[in-house]
Structure formats: structure tokens, C-alpha cells
Design a protein that fits this description.
The chain has helices at residues 2-25, 42-58, 73-80, 94-103, 138-147, 160-173, 185-193, 207-214, 260-273, 277-285, 295-320; strands spanning 31-35, 62-66, 88-92, 114-123, 125-130, 152-156, 177-181, 199-203, 217-222, 248-255, 293-294. The protein has 321 residues and is α/β, with parallel strands linked by helices. The chain folds into 2 domains: 21-123 and 247-311, Bordetella uptake gene, domain 1 (D-Maltodextrin-Binding Protein, domain 2), CATH 3.40.190.150; 125-246, 3-Layer(aba) Sandwich (D-Maltodextrin-Binding Protein, domain 2), CATH 3.40.190.10. The model is unreliable at 4-19 (pLDDT under 50).
């Protein structure tokens, strides 16, 4: 009887302590972090900033793999279909992929089957133009676009949602614009600087944003709902009375059924490294706003963002008739 009780106690201990023990030894080999966007954009840049302190925290390399295209949908799917063992994680503006399914006639992501780790920063989107254009702010752009219907091209650095915010503003003002989607902010910035497109929506921290800080580009308007770092006085479309704004938050996520202890270990590590003064200064100097959001809040934020798209799409659809 005593032997049986010892055996039961041992089994109980293994069941109760199994997941923490699994997390205690994790990771035992390099981890692959898939950024579902091409190199050069805010997703790629910000994830690379975080990888160095996370590697130190985990004691293993984190290998970044860029899988751009399709507004992040294919790259994110590649992670969600991977083995749920904690060795494949997605990082960056994952909400772009969630939202893009509305515009690309793709199956919606089931957010209940994603292992949200947490978010590490919100990001404002901005509309930029070359400084030699005859418009330096939104009102001048609207006047010019009205006088030149169908001639103005608007690029997007991989954010379908932000591009749709521009479209909703254009519909309200009766503007006829052409829209171009890019795989990353880096590619979009290159075409904007090269004169291949007239204006472009990009994220804070991207090469386009840095070009604006240098004076090579001008910011016509803020497309988000918060202030733009280093350009706090530039009003947003919401400030101007337009109906919609974009809201993005960058974070990490695992495939469904990844052991909870591993996911929780990542969440704890992310919260810890975001308190590091050196990392925060590095991010802030790039124009990013480091801000931790736990897994529950990140999931709720993503759900709310997805739900808001329906309203904007209905508005745009009706206005386009």
C-alpha cells in the first residue's frame, strides 16, 4: 500500500509540475521567429531590436526569417501551421494579416486558435509625400487631388487597414485616387523617394518616417489616434473630423496548442526586456513607443480591430457607389 501511495504521489507530481519543468528547460535549441513582412519595414526593424535582449534572456539564438507578401497572411499561416513546440514564433504587425483577409477575399483567422504572447508597441501610421510636391499638408493635398482626379497614386507599406482609412477620407471628400500595395515599408519608401508614387502611408519608425525626420519627406497627416513621435503637432484625420483612424499593435504569437508554460515564458521575457533602459532608448530614438501588452489584452485589441473593419468597409462600399 505504501508503495502504491508513493507511485501515485510521484505521478501526481509529474502531472502538476510537467509544464513548468518543460518551460524550465526551454529553449534547448535556436528559435525561428518569422516576420511575415519583407525586410526594411517597421515590423522587421522592431523585431530585430527585440531579438538581441530576448536571446540573452533565453540563452539561445533567435533566427529571424522574413516571409513577405500577401499583407502578412502567408507568413503568419506558415507559423500557425508549424509544430506547436515553441520553436516557431511570429513577430511584428500581426494585426495586418488579420485585417488583410477582409480585403483579399481570404479565410479569416480564428483568433481563438492563436497563442498570443503579448504586444510590444503600438504604431501610428502616417501619410507622406516628397517635399517638392505642391502640397505640404492634408488640406493642400485634398485641393490638389480634386483638381487632378485619377492622377494621384497612394502607396501603402503593407497595411491594408491604413490604406482603407485613406480611402474612407478620400470618399468623404470625393477624391479619385489610385492605390498601390507594397510588401513592406522599405519597398514603399523606395518608390516614394524615387517618384514612382505620389504619396504613401507608412508606419512610424520605417525608413519613410526617418526620411521625414531628415527633411526629405513631409508628413501630410496622422492616420492614427495618438501623437506622432517628434511630430506631435501634426493633426490626425480624426482631429480633422474624418470618421476612421487606424490602430496597430506589434507583438508575438505561437501556433495553437503550444504548451502554455512556454508561451507564458515568452510573455514574461517580453515584459522584462521592454523594461530595459537601453532597449527603450534605442526604440524611442527610432520613433517607436515601447509598451507592453499582455496576451489577454493583445488578443482583445486584435478582436476589436477586426470587428471595426466591417463598419469601415460598409462606409467605403456605400460611398463608392
Amino acid at each position: 500500500m505504501k508503495t502504491l501511495l508513493c507511485f501515485v504521489a510521484m505521478v501526481f507530481t509529474l502531472v502538476v509540475d510537467g509544464l513548468p519543468a518543460q518551460a524550465a528547460h526551454y529553449p534547448e535549441k535556436p528559435v525561428t521567429c518569422v516576420v511575415p513582412f519583407a525586410p526594411g519595414g517597421a515590423a522587421d526593424i522592431s523585431v530585430r531590436m527585440l531579438v538581441e535582449p530576448l536571446q540573452k534572456e533565453f540563452g539561445q539564438p533567435i533566427v529571424i526569417v522574413n516571409k513577405g507578401g500577401g499583407s502578412g497572411i502567408p507568413g503568419l499561416h506558415s507559423v500557425l501551421r508549424a509544430e506547436p513546440d515553441g520553436y516557431t514564433v511570429a513577430g511584428g504587425a500581426l494585426g495586418n494579416a488579420f485585417v488583410a483577409t477582409f480585403f483579399l477575399d481570404a479565410p479569416r483567422f480564428d483568433l481563438d486558435k492563436i497563442g498570443f504572447v503579448g504586444a510590444y508597441m503600438p504604431q501610428e501610421r502616417i501619410l507622406l509625400a516628397k517635399k517638392d510636391k505642391p502640397y505640404k499638408k492634408w488640406e493642400e493635398f485634398v485641393t490638389y487631388a480634386k483638381a487632378n482626379p485619377g492622377k494621384i497614386s497612394v502607396g501603402s507599406g503593407a497595411s491594408q487597414e491604413a490604406l482603407e482609412v485613406v480611402r474612407s477620407a478620400a470618399i468623404r471628400d470625393g477624391l479619385n485616387l489610385k492605390y498601390v500595395m507594397y510588401k513592406s515599408g522599405g519597398e514603399a519608401t523606395a518608390d516614394l523617394l524615387g517618384g514612382h508614387i505620389d504619396v504613401c502611408e507608412l508606419g512610424v519608425g520605417t525608413p519613410g518616417y526617418q526620411a521625414a525626420r531628415k527633411g526629405d519627406l513631409v508628413i501630410l497627416t496622422n492616420l492614427g489616434s495618438d501623437r506622432i513621435p517628434f511630430f506631435e503637432n501634426i493633426p490626425s484625420l480624426k482631429d480633422r473630423g474624418y470618421p476612421y483612424a487606424t490602430a496597430l499593435s506589434y507583438g508575438f504569437a505561437f501556433p495553437d496548442k503550444t504548451p502554455e508554460a512556454i508561451r507564458a515564458k515568452w510573455e514574461k521575457a517580453l515584459e522584462k526586456v521592454l523594461q530595459d533602459k537601453e532597449l527603450r532608448e534605442k526604440m524611442e530614438n527610432a520613433g517607436f513607443r515601447p509598451k507592453f501588452m499582455d496576451s489577454g489584452a493583445y488578443k482583445k485589441f486584435s478582436q476589436d480591430t477586426v470587428q471595426s473593419i466591417d463598419s469601415m468597409l460598409q462606409y467605403n462600399k456605400q460611398g463608392a457607389k
